[in-house]
Design goal:
The complex is a heterodimer of chains A (272) and B (78).
Chain A lengths: L3 H8 L4 E2 L1 H11 L3 H10 L3 E2 L11 H8 L2 E5 L3 H13 L3 E5 L24 H12 L4 E5 L8 H4 L5 E4 L4 H14 L3 E7 L2 E7 L5 H5 L10 H4 L3 H20 L8 E6 L4 E6 L1
Parallel strand pairs in A: 1-2, 3-4, 3-6, 4-5, 6-7
Antiparallel strand pairs in A: 7-8, 8-9, 9-10
Chain B lengths: L4 E7 L10 E6 L3 E2 H7 L9 E4 L2 E3 L4 E2 L4 E5 L6
Parallel strand pairs in B: 1-7
Antiparallel strand pairs in B: 1-2, 3-6, 4-5, 4-7
Classes of the chains: A alpha/beta (272), B mainly beta (78).
């Protein structure tokens, strides 16, 4: 029997490996999909699912993304989209954290909420969804609330953490822990037609600066609610920040905040 | 008698509802952000981020003639 490497090389066409070839290798070699994917990328063979990433993400980039872990804290309006985008982009390891189950009122915006997932744990739904999108991605679900005490477990090996929470107090706690642990944090929050995104690097206290006048745990969302287009837009920007941090490409929102007003369509960049 | 001064105030997101998006605040001398918030009937908890001429500032910061003050509410939903 050929080795896995020989099998993949033999079945590749113009250095592209199809999903069916990967699935066949998983069956014949009794290996996890993740091993088959990493072996292919390591041989500079591109899984066909990434073809349309074009020249924007090179094969070396895909391998780098595949070997990275991202911790998505909060799996609701923002987190659901972020998990979806990162799995499609080929982030190899996702830790997803949320204590809640889906309820009717999530369905206006939360990607992973469907009539069929009502009552289901949000992180469990995320794991199922990722498996259907990209079985090479390993999801570590944690059906618990983020706390400083649990942070060592929840942020273990995370290259980047994503703040997709819904309370200002917990966001600040996450930001403190990330600063201490040296983990870059991509913050996003929404309320009505408005949203904001920033990226805090180790040693910085961007979120503390941003929320220093906030007295309560909630912002404008308490009255304005949360809308699907605001959630998906902010989640998309957060996901792009994550990819840039991992690949060390482009410019991030480090030291500045992007404030988005979708009602008057204004994007304001603020130096913090 | 204090010096009469004008400050441009930009209210972002929900802060402008029932008020204005961009307005000119006329006042006396020795104003702080806090004074302007009071006169606009905005509580300090409603404002998360304060910028004066593009600089991140505090509620106690002084506002001078010709300054532009931008106020953003806290946004915390996910």
């Amino acid at each position: 029997m050929k080795s896995l490497k020989e099998f993949l090389a033999a079945h590749a066409r113009n250095t592209i490996v199809s999903y069916s070839t990967q699935a066949k290798a998983v069956r014949e070699y009794r290996l996890p999909f993740s091993v088959v994917e990493e072996t292919a990328l390591d041989l500079n063979l591109l899984p066909a699912r990434y073809l349309r990433n074009g020249e924007s993400l090179s094969r070396a980039d895909q391998l780098c993304l595949f070997r990275s872990r991202v911790a998505v804290i909060g799996c609701g309006g923002l987190g659901g989209y972020i998990v979806e985008i990162l799995a499609r982009a080929g982030i190899g390891h996702l830790t997803v954290v949320d204590p809640d189950v889906f309820d009717d009122h999530n369905m206006n915006r939360q990607l992973l909420s469907e009539t069929a997932t009502l009552g289901m744990s949000k992180v469990e739904a995320a794991a199922h969804r990722v498996k259907r999108i990209n079985p090479a991605v390993t999801v570590t679900p944690a059906k618990i609330a983020f706390t400083k005490e649990k942070s060592a477990q929840l942020l273990r090996n995370a290259r980047v953490a994503v703040d997709a929470l819904d309370s200002i107090g917990t966001r600040l706690e996450l930001a403190d822990v990330c600063r201490e642990k040296g983990i870059p944090l991509v913050h996003g929050s929404i309320g009505g037609w408005y949203g904001q995104v920033t990226t805090q690097f180790p040693g910085e206290n961007t979120l503390q600066k941003m929320y220093r006048h906030s007295s309560g745990d909630r912002g404008v969302e308490e009255k304005l609610g949360n809308l699907s287009f605001t959630a998906s837009l902010v989640a998309g920007i957060q996901a792009a920040e994550v990819i840039k941090i991992i690949l060390n490409q482009g410019n991030t929102l480090r030291g500045r905040m992007l404030f988005i007003d979708l009602l008057d369509l204004e994007f304001v960049n603020l130096a913090l | 008698m204090g010096v009469f001064m004008k400050v441009t105030v930009k209210l972002f997101a929900s802060l402008c509802s029932g008020r204005f998006a961009v307005g000119v605040f006329d006042g006396g001398a020795a104003l702080t952000v806090r004074d302007i918030l009071k006169s606009l009937n905005i509580s300090e908890g409603e404002v998360s981020i304060i910028f004066i001429n593009g600089r991140h500032e505090d509620v106690s910061a002084a506002v001078r003639d010709g300054d532009t003050l931008a106020l953003f509410p806290p946004v915390g939903g996910g």
